[in-house]
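Entry for the shared binder. Reason: the reviewer on the internal report wants the predicted structure included alongside the sequence.
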Amino acid sequence: MSLFGMTDKVSEYMIISLINSTFMSKYVDDFVNNTQTFQINDARQIPIIIPTTDQLAQFTDIFNRALHIKKTTNNDDELAVIQKELDELTHALYNL
């Protein structure tokens, strides 16, 4: 499966971050595909809100920090902190 950002306003880092947010995972399970596998067509059905420049930078930062932790220490406690930040940013983006 390949993933490319739609424009320079929505990067693949943001899309990957959104897909990994608790809100979007629940949205996909409830409304798009309730099976164990996530398909590229599922990603196409996710409503993407165009972020501000600041929000896009925050999503990119979260992605980069999580990737660094996964590649180096794979520390679940550190990843849980990042997950909470991601969920809060996603809620702010979608005005939840």
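Summary line for the report: The chain has five helices and no strands.
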